[in-house]
Amino acid sequence: MNKPNPTIRQATFAARRARFIESMGRGIAVIPTAPETVRNRDSHFPYRNDSYFHYLSGFTEPEAVLVLIAGESPKSILFCREKNAEREVWDGFRFGPEAAREAFAMDEAQTIATLDETLPKLMADQPTIFTPLGLDPAWDRRIIAALNGVRAQIRTGISAPAVLHDARDLLDRMRLLKDEEEIALMQRAADISVGAHTRAMARTRPGWFEYQVEAELTHEFLRHGALSPAYPSIVASGPGACVLHYRANDRQMAAGELRLIDAGCELQGYASDITRSFPVGKAFTGPQREVYELVLAAQAACIEALAPGRPFHDYHDVAEKVLAQGLIDLRLCQGTLDAVLETGDFKRFYMHRAGHWLGLDVHDAGAYREAGQSLPLAPGMVLTVEPGCYIRPAENVDERFWNIGVRIEDDLLITATGTRNLTAAAPKTVADIEALRRDALGNR
Ligand code: GLY
Ligand code: MN
Ligand code: MN
Fold first, then answer.
1. Where exactly does CATH 3.40.350.10 map onto the chain?
2. Could you report the per-residue pLDDT of 69-114, keeping only the tens digit for each?
3. CA of 409 to the centre of ligand 3 (A)
4. CATH fold for domain 10-174
5. Which CATH architecture has domain 177-441?
6. Would you say the pTM of this structure is higher than 0.90?
7. Which of 48, 356, 28, 36 is nearest to 167 (CA)?
8. For residue range 319-346, what is the model confidence (pLDDT) as tens digits?
9. Which of 94, 151, 199, 352 is catalytic?
10. Is 352 a catalytic residue?
């Protein structure tokens, strides 16, 4: 039996709306969910609601808009699809406004069909409209049309909003700090993904195709109720491990190669994001181990550099320093550490940042700098730590290292006293990985 996954309570969504409304001061917020996207003809891509909309409502149906009114009588109004017995025969249950109002603790709910005629009325006499701007041209046009609808009536004595404020500005600040329920959900998503990586590591066989391993990951996600990966799983081997966003997942793997898996499930909207690199055979080759140990040391140093109050960018600098020195030691870069850092020569082998915020989005909402200064880390922030080293065949590169691609990625929560590694249980040391591979392959 599966243990039930944690959930976010309706009271928590309502409390977020109240906090957001408070931060608006006065005005109206109009937050749309994501549109559905056609895959071909009558088939759509699996639907995923918008993260900001989800953060404030928990409502997962398409064709919905949340309106929040701030000021003397604050109010939450959900616009959603009508009940439709016929469509429900084809597509399944939909709430309809009445049941949605009740279930999602809204003050009011209305059919989405009335949105365009209702918005100008709701916007009348409001000083400011808070909405995501520049995200979807169709949405921008709809908001401007509603605003013009108010302007058309100003001779009747009402005033039109004078300010358009990007709602994401306020919401990003809120989303950056995860509450207890979010942390519990993210820990569960992390646990499921750890299980998936461990399974993939234990089942990979020389001669398998990469997609067979992807199937092992997906199996583990789904059977625990994580219905989607948080991003397309990267299951790379050999030269593919040096392609940062490798997508093909269709190559046949051979012993002696490295494989790199960057995969994490999404659980009730929340992402996990783990990378592990391990041998297709039983053991790392010498050069593979040297590069692996370097990236592992860089990752450990990065994690050491995380603490409440420390600037976000510190761990990026640490990753660059440790990797640049290691590349010099491996004779892949020449010169002093200062020179290699100064010229950026190490970027031939390490060309991305050390990590990013993690939450409802895999590259989560939230600024990294404020007024030019790196954001100080604070308890409740969740970020990835993912240094890597990717060595493509090239004339001036020692051939022993060709096609070695290593990334090691964990998800870290900043706590009051330091950090908690949400994904620490995924095997990571050379000894643990090789023991697992030996067990997996036995006498092969
Ligand atoms: N999996 C995407 C990333 O690591 O940023
Ligand atoms: Mn990542
Ligand atoms: Mn990743």
1. 10-174
2. 999 999 999 999 999 999 999 999 999 999 999 999 999 999 999 9
3. 6
4. Creatine Amidinohydrolase; Chain A, domain 1 (3.40.350)
5. Alpha-Beta Complex (3.90)
6. yes
7. 28
8. 999 999 999 999 999 999 999 999 999 9
9. 352
10. yes
